[in-house]
Amino acid sequence: MPTSRKPDAAELLLEILELTSFGTTTQRQLTNRLRRTHPVRRVANRVEHGLRTLIAEGLVESDFKDGVEHFHATRAGLAALEQRGRMPSSSAVMFTDIVGSTEMIAELGEAAAHDCRKRHFALLRGSIDQHGGREVKNLGDGLMVLFADPAAALDCAQQMQEAVDADADNLGLRIGVHAGELLREHGDYFGTTVIVASRLCDRADAGETIVSAHVRELADQQADSARPERPQPLGKLHLKGIPRPVEAFQLG
């Protein structure tokens, strides 16, 4: 929730480092994100100074894409976060999965199916980069991705579905998204949040994105404007390995 309390320099540096740990992001994106949680004066100047400090310490590095400077945490930066056990409590986890992978291999053969997968993942990664996500791992037929901003995760999911739907390979894509606390170890992530996101993905059909009520609520809080889509309530779903039902929605 937003707070008027002015964060001290060390706290702000850690927050900037956390946000850059999810993937490449611009100074403007960082400023907009921090302005939501710290509506204090001169946030842009403090973000700029913080980025330069982190770069000087070797915790963040930058490069240019289409003339715009993008920032991302280095391995040393990720290690520094892991040592401190830092992870935003609103982190969103996304799982994607190709629908009909076995049938695709049977129809096209291993080599051609592999080429289809490569093109499919290129589409997904393009959306991930645009929305500041961080790919954790490739699961063969899908990806596990983290987002510091749940609203960005839902926007990314929508763009992924649109891109895959328009692609000539005609593959089906299902997506699940949940948000919450994560356990981090050796570059991977664990815990109930991860399990719920994976199980929501399992429940989706081709072309569907299923999100928890919690991630939808966080996204609505953090979005710059009201979200245009009308999610379809699915009620409380009983998910394998999760003791309590999870209220979920299907995105349009």
Using the alpha-carbon principal axes, give the shape.
globular
Relative helix content: 40-55%
SSE-based structural type = alpha+beta
Query: Care to count the β-strands?
Result: 12
Mean pLDDT: 85
Strand order in the sheet with the most strands: 5-6-4-7-10-12-11
Strand content: 15-25%
Distance between the termini: 27 Å
Q: In CATH terms, what is the architecture of the largest domain?
A: 2-Layer Sandwich
- Can you write the helix and strand succession as a string? HEHHEEHEHHEEHEEEHEHEE
List the helices and strands and how they pair.
Blueprint: H1 9-20, E1 25-26, H2 27-37, H3 43-56, E2 60-65, E3 68-73, H4 75-84, E4 92-99, H5 101-108, H6 110-130, E5 134-138, E6 143-147, H7 150-166, E7 172-179, E8 183-185, E9 188-190, H8 192-203, E10 209-212, H9 213-222, E11 232-237, E12 246-251
Parallel strand pairs: 7-10
Antiparallel strand pairs: 1-3, 2-3, 4-6, 4-7, 5-6, 8-9, 10-12, 11-12
Could you please describe the fold and organization of this structure?
Helix content is 46%, strand content 25%. The chain has 9 helices and 12 strands. It has helices at residues 9-20, 27-37, 43-56, 75-84, 101-108, 110-130, 150-166, 192-203, 213-222; strands spanning 25-26, 60-65, 68-73, 92-99, 134-138, 143-147, 172-179, 183-185, 188-190, 209-212, 232-237, 246-251. Helix 1 packs across helix 3, helix 2 crosses helix 3 (43-56) and helix 6 packs antiparallel against helix 7 (150-166).
